[in-house]
């Protein structure tokens, strides 16, 4: 097992960021799904079915994972 720390290149981070934003905002017109679903949840989620919750998960998960990973890296760098 290697003890070297893995480093992520800026170009791969840019790709991950672009992919996460693209998935979060797709489809772009008339309104991104993520915005509509979050607004629906904040309004009480009345009438949301399983498909709607799955759609919220699929559009929100990439940006959530990327944000948590970036926060984790920021905290790790601040502690070092």
A few lines on this structure:
The protein contains 3 helices and no strands. The protein has 80 residues and is mostly helical.
Question: What does this protein structure show overall?
Answer:
With 80 residues, the chain is mainly α. The chain has a domain at 29-42 and 49-80. Helices cover 70% and strands 0% of the residues. It has helices at residues 10-25, 33-42, 50-79. It is elongated. The two termini are 23 Å apart. The model has no long low-confidence stretch (mean pLDDT 83).
Helix % is: over 70%
Helix/strand-derived category reads mainly alpha
Number of helices: 3
SSE string, helices as H and strands as E = HHH
Low-confidence segments: none
Tell me the total number of β-strands. Answer: 0
Strand content: under 5%
Rg: 17 Å
Query: Tell me about the biggest sheet?
Result: none
Principal-axes geometry comes out as: elongated
Question: Mean of residue pLDDT?
Answer: 83
Q: Distance N terminus to C terminus?
A: 23 Å
SSE arrangement:
Layout lengths: L9 H16 L7 H10 L7 H30 L1
Could you list some keywords that capture this structure?
single chain, 80 residues, mainly alpha
